Amino acid sequence: MRKVLLSVLLSFILVATGSSVALALQSGGVEVGDLASGSVVGQPFKTLDVDVSFIAMEIGGKKVWYPPTAILDLTSQGTGGRAGRPVLLKVTNSLDSVHGFDLNADSAFAGPTSMHVKITLEPGETKYIGIPVSDLTYVTASNTLQYKCQLHGAHVGGTLLVLR
């Protein structure tokens, strides 16, 4: 009887430990909204600093997301030293037509819990994307995210490099 009770207790502990690890990988979730009403993990967007801005524009006759390469510094000297405040991305469509923004991990290196954000922006519209820092640390093994227009395959996207 003791052995059965002990094995059940040990099994329960192992299951509980394994499930807490899985929950840690999905800690906050990405939130999309405007500056006035948006919030992520209980913090309003208007109280956060914008960490990276992306602008849909036309350069040399091609529609692109600018900048082509962006760097997000999560080291203790960068945004990671902000006591757990979320990261805020600003996405603006300066074109005269609808444009998409798709931010995700490279599919070759993406884990099962990797982040994927898809939004559509009207002409002149700006949206904000709030991401908990803990979610960015589990994004991808290669420390890069790709962004592009999911509506138009010919539009030029870019790469977001996450320094940890």
Summarize the structure in short.
The chain has 164 residues and is of the alpha+beta class. It has helices at residues 2-24, 133-136; strands spanning 31-33, 39-40, 43-44, 52-59, 62-66, 69-73, 87-93, 99-105, 116-121, 126-131, 144-148, 158-163.
Relevant terms:
single chain; 164 residues; alpha+beta; Immunoglobulin-like; 5-stranded mixed beta sheet; 2 helices
Biggest sheet overview: 5 strands, mixed
- The CATH superfamily title: Cupredoxins -  blue copper proteins
Helix count, per DSSP?
2
CATH classification class: Mainly Beta
Q: State the secondary-structure class.
A: alpha+beta
- Taking pLDDT < 50 over at least 5 consecutive residues as the criterion, the unreliable ranges are 14-26
Any idea what the radius of gyration is? 19 Å
Percent helix: 10-25%
The quaternary structure here is single chain
**End-to-end Cα distance:** 50 Å
What is the element string, with H for helices and E for strands? Answer: HEEEEEEEEEEHEE
Note down, in words, how this protein is organized.
With 164 residues, the protein is an alpha+beta fold. It has one domain (28-163): Cupredoxins -  blue copper proteins (Immunoglobulin-like, Sandwich). Helices cover 16% and strands 38% of the residues. It contains 2 helices and 12 strands. The strands form 3 sheets. The protein has a 5-stranded mixed beta sheet with strand order 1-10-7-4-5. It is globular and about 75 Å long. The N and C termini lie far apart (50 Å).
